Amino acid sequence: MSKIKCRNCGKELTYNVISDIPTFPFCSKRCKLVDLGQWFDGEMRIEEPTTSDQLENDDT
Fold first, then answer.
1. Contact status, residue 19 vs residue 11, Cβ threshold 8 Å
2. Are 26 and 8 in contact (CB under 8 A)?
3. With 90 as the cut, is the pLDDT of residue 45 above it?
4. What sign has the CA pseudo-torsion 45, 49, 54, 58?
5. Cα angle vertex 27, ends 35, 21, to 5°?
6. Is the pLDDT assigned to residue 59 strictly greater than 60?
7. pLDDT band at 48 (very low <50, low <70, confident <90, very high)
8. In the structure, how many helices (H) and strands (E) does the chain have?
9. According to CATH, what is the number of the domain 2-45?
10. Quick check: 26 and 5 in contact, CB under 8 A?
11. Within 10 A of 52 (CB to CB), how many other CB atoms are there?
């Protein structure tokens, strides 16, 4: 059996295969929707690394 913690609330989930948890990697639909809301609100985002070319062009 494998264990993982819910990415939202931290509840420990135990499973044999990922399909045992329909809302994987979250414990519930609620936790899944809370996470989605954080992405929509801009609280969570993926930022690309800044390159030296971008720094030089930002002087304008």
1. no
2. yes
3. no
4. positive
5. 120
6. no
7. confident
8. 2, 2
9. 3.30.50.10
10. no
11. 7
DSSP 19-45: GGSTTTTSSSHHHHHHHHHHHHTTSS-
Query: 4: which strand partners?
Result: 13
Residue 52 has pLDDT above 90, yes or no: no
Q: What is the pTM of this model?
A: 0.69
Q: How many CB atoms lie within 10 A of CB 25?
A: 15
Distance (Å, whole) CA 15 – CA 21: 7
Give the tens place of pLDDT for each residue, 3-22: 999 999 999 999 999 999 99
Residue ranges per domain, the chain?
2-45
